[in-house]
Amino acid sequence: MKFDTLAVHAGAEVDRETGAVAPPIHLSTTFRHGPAGELVDELEYQRDDHPTQRRLQAALAALEGGERALAFASGMAAVAAVLDTLQCGQRWLLADDCYAGTRTFAAEVLSERGVETVTVDLADLDAVRAASTGGVALLWAESPSNPRIRISDIAELARIAHAHGALLVCDNTFATPVLQKPLQLGADIVMHSTTKYFGGHSDVLGGALVFARNDDFAERIAQRRLLGGAVLSPFSAWLTLRGCRSLPARMRVHCANAARVAEFLDTHPEVEVVHYPGLPAHPGHALAKQQMSGFGGMLSIQLRGGREAALRVASKLKLFINATSLGGCESLVEHRASVEGTHSTSPQNLLRFSIGLEDPEDLIADLQQALAA
Ligand SMILES: Cc1ncc(COP(=O)(O)O)c(C=O)c1O
Q: How far is the CA of 237 from the CAs of 3, 194, 234, in angstroms?
């Protein structure tokens, strides 16, 4: 089955009980069991699993090509579920350009526990090899990365990780499985903030892990989700499943619009550099062409006039909304250095854009007036 067909149908089978074409939503927190607690209909309690989540997890596993998927209450709950498995004395490698929440979790939670985080430029494979020689439990990749939109070689990172007995986890939030399939490239786990492109409408928080193998590690994380309780509600699962079905169609528009906007920004005299892998001058362009089927809807720019210019442009934009998050229908802009907190490494002159589904001519006109002196 082709990917677009899978996206429409995975987890969305016609309801056997009623014939409903749209997937049903089940709100029940509890499911009948036998007198000695024996399962009758497979399910027991909503914190463990529920029918709407089962459908969503089936869809996520099918779309990423994994054996098992677990849905979480947020992307950060999914991040924490993996990182919580690291023990005192263990080391792990994290992309030096990555989502600020992951970096903050490492700096504020894992450090207290005696887990050593090594940040490294994952585009520099020699640096990754050198950093791995001390022994690593985990390699955490993010490609394209947030907010500098860097591209790293997932297949090579998997080889390096496996040579050291480590797992490769790939945050695939920016690319989505429409554009990139890390498990096929050798990653062991894919992580998503489904809040972004999967939800697609800026109205549902969620996260997911998709495992290449349904092994003991996946089961251990499922147990921790049950005990930690960071689970996805039926309504959130239902909205996210609805998002899966239109994901490929939406991604095509996000990509086409972002390419147009990036080309415009690339020629603007106020813009020092555009970070978009679809531009031939982007250092990861050739690699992105090879491991992705499109360049995505996220881009960032660095302005010649420093922080002041970045804030001026952000304040003058009318159609782009100043807001955090990404992957919705509406275009967003954000000065990441202002919002990422104490562990931010974002340049002061950087603005990140989530390119939405509007007409790109309107987006370009808005940028043109905001960039005008
Ligand atoms: C790349 C990336 N990973 C993880 C997260 C965390 O996800 P959530 O906000 O759903 O907890 C985000 C959120 O912005 C993100 O952009």
A: 21, 10, 5
